Amino acid sequence: MVKEQAGQVLAANLRALRAQAGLSMSELARRSGIAKGTLSQLESGTGNPTIETVFSLSNAFQVPVSTLLTERTAPEVVLVRGAGLDVLSSVAVDLRMFRRLDLQDTVFELYDQRVRPGAVQHSAGHPGLEHVVVTSGRLQVGPPNEPYVLDAGDYVCFPADQPHVYSTADEEPVVSVLLLQYPSDQVVSVLASCVSR
Predict the structure, then answer these.
(1) What range does the domain containing 171 cover?
(2) Beta sheet of 148-150, edge-to-edge order
(3) DSSP state letter for 168
(4) Distance between CA atoms of residues 84 and 44, nearest Å
(5) Do 53 and 103 have their domain in common?
(6) Quick one: 130 and 156 in the same domain?
(7) 68 and 91: one domain?
(8) Phi, psi of 176 (to 5 degrees)
(9) In what order do the strands lie in the sheet with 88-89?
(10) Model's pTM, two decimal places?
């Protein structure tokens, strides 16, 4: 999806989630820590969301990131061209979401993740588990005080609800696959609680 289409998908999903939860723009700004003006731009499809913005909205609504970024479709064959994907960028990380998978009891989000040298990406935590496979470079990921160092071909899985970091272990960029995993009952109960608020 091109950037303009991705912005329109985010705008539609943001409006729908805010309406379902019965939240004013001011209340969503308070819960997410995002300025009302920025939220207004995102809802109109004219904003330029960062990784932090999308994860803040994910935490505010207590839904997977893919709930904000994807349209629901169920084709038998899915072909996603990386060149057409919108990139969410941050201090050290570029993410491109390939797909959301709703399985019987689990929701997965599949991302291409690139980590740039010279900076550290900090996450305060969010629901689910993170699975990371490094395809090139050396990655430091996990608890801020004792991150795991992964070489190409290495894999790690850790609870995402605690603070964690991403950075390169040397001066070379890192290419990796990120798979976010959420229990679907958590997603359903979270959506129900948003609607009942």
Answers:
(1) 82-185
(2) 121-123, 164-168, 139-142, 148-150
(3) E
(4) 22
(5) no
(6) yes
(7) no
(8) -150, 165
(9) 88-89, 93-102, 106-115, 174-183, 129-136, 155-159
(10) 0.65
How many residues make up the chain in this entry?
Answer: 197
Helix axes 51-61, 36-44, angle to 10 degrees: 90
CATH number at residue 64: 1.10.260.40
What are the C-alpha distances in Å from 158 to residues 4, 11, 83, 119, 132? 33, 31, 29, 21, 9
Separation of alpha carbons 51 and 39, rounded Å = 14
Domain count, the chain: 2
User: What does the pLDDT look like over 68-86, one tens digit per residue?
Assistant: 888 755 556 777 888 888 8
- DSSP code at position 153: T
Whether residue 196 is contained in a domain is answered as no
pLDDT in tens, 128-159: 999 999 999 999 999 999 999 999 999 999 99
Same domain, 28 and 109: no
For residue 133, the tally of other CB atoms under 10 A from its CB is 18
DSSP for 31-98? HHT--HHHHHHHHHT-----HHHHHHHHHHHT--HHHHH------SS----GGGS--EE-SSEEEEEE
| Cβ proximity of 144 and 122 under 8 Å | yes
